[in-house]
């Protein structure tokens, strides 16, 4: 079965977004941010394809995403303040400028987005399906913000975010046709890194990197469940997949693999792969 087919939507996405610059009238500042974003995505697509071909060690999967965010962080011209919780505003004010620490947060956001999709995988259509769900909520969020801020600079920030998210969703929907159960292609780590970096870039350029985490709640839960294995406390195989029973044609829980998929199978019992994927995507 063809593998690493995430490369194809990534290439089409890059071709579309590069040519969008001929149609959209960006200011020089926005053009710098836009091209820095495309460079970061290109670097992550390259890492994903290298991983599919050479099976890179986990340490590189944390280092390279951090380096890939440098072009975007250098070009970032937004605010570095965070909103203070209501109970603390009388002491700290409504906003606090955290300066350089905000850049550290954005860099870590890119690392989290890319790897969280990569470790929440292993079923036909799950990687692509969760990316469509996240991308759809980002699209809705941008549209709502456009209506609320039609006459200020926030409008341009979310418009820039939309110019990346719309082609991403359409290329991903095309990939889902081939990757949905029963899958005819495997998307590989190429798509996981491509999707994760695109989400991080969109959140940073749209100036909503904190809100972005709300769209990653299932991935955050999966990441927390994975802590014992990711930290080496419990043995961590390269692929923490559930067991496929050839007799019943169902997926069964592997109790020493700590993921959302295995937690779901532990609760509901053996399940058909398509049903399990649909329930996890809706959840």
What topology emerges from the helices and strands here?
Elements: H1 7-23, H2 28-54, H3 58-68, H4 70-75, E1 81-83, H5 89-92, E2 95-97, H6 100-119, H7 126-148, H8 153-179, H9 188-205, H10 209-212, H11 217-230, E3 243-245, E4 250-252, H12 260-268, H13 273-282
Antiparallel strand pairs: 1-2, 3-4
Helix pairs in contact: 1-2, 1-8, 2-3, 2-9, 3-6, 6-9, 7-8, 7-9, 7-13, 8-9
Q: Briefly, what is this?
A:
With 283 residues, this protein is mainly alpha-helical. It has helices spanning 7-23, 28-54, 58-68, 70-75, 89-92, 100-119, 126-148, 153-179, 188-205, 209-212, 217-230, 260-268, 273-282, and strands at 81-83, 95-97, 243-245, 250-252.
Query: How many separate domains?
Result: 2
Portion in beta strands: under 5%
Structural class: mainly alpha
* N/C terminus separation: 29 Å
Integer average pLDDT:
87
Question: How does the overall form come out from the CA principal axes?
Answer: globular
Largest sheet: spatial strand order: 1-2
Please give the count of helices: 13
Instruction: List the helices and strands in order.
Output: HHHHEHEHHHHHHEEHH
Main sheet record: 2 strands, antiparallel
The amount of helix comes to 55-70%
**How many beta strands in the DSSP annotation?**
4
* C-alpha Rg (nearest Å): 19 Å
Regions with little confidence, pLDDT below 50 for 5+ residues: none
């Amino acid at each position: 079965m063809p593998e690493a087919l995430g490369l194809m939507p990534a290439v089409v996405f890059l071709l579309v977004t590069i040519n969008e610059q001929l149609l959209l009238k960006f200011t020089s500042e926005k053009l710098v941010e836009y091209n820095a974003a495309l460079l970061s995505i290109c670097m992550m697509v390259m890492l994903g394809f290298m991983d599919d071909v050479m099976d890179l060690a986990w340490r590189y999967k944390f280092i390279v995403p951090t380096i890939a965010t440098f072009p975007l962080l250098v070009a970032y011209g937004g605010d570095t303040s965070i909103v203070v919780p209501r109970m603390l505003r009388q002491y700290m004010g409504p906003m606090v400028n955290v300066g350089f620490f905000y850049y550290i947060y954005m860099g870590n956001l890119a690392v989290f987005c890319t790897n969280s999709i990569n470790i929440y995988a292993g079923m036909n259509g799950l990687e692509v399906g969760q990316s469509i769900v996240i991308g759809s909520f980002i699209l809705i969020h941008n549209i709502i913000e456009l209506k609320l801020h039609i006459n200020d600079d926030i409008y341009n920030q979310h418009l820039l975010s939309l110019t990346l998210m719309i082609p991403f969703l359409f290329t991903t929907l095309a990939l889902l046709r081939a990757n949905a159960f029963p899958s005819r292609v495997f998307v590989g780590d190429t798509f996981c890194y491509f999707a994760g970096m695109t989400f991080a870039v969109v959140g940073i350029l749209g100036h909503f990197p904190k809100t972005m985490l709300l769209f990653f709640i299932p991935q955050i839960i999966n990441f927390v469940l994975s802590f014992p294995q990711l930290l080496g406390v419990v043995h961590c195989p390269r692929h923490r997949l559930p067991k496929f029973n050839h007799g019943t044609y169902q997926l069964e829980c592997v109790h020493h693999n700590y993921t959302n998929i295995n937690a779901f199978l532990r609760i509901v019992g053996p399940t058909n792969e398509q049903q399990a994927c649909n329930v996890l995507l809706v959840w």
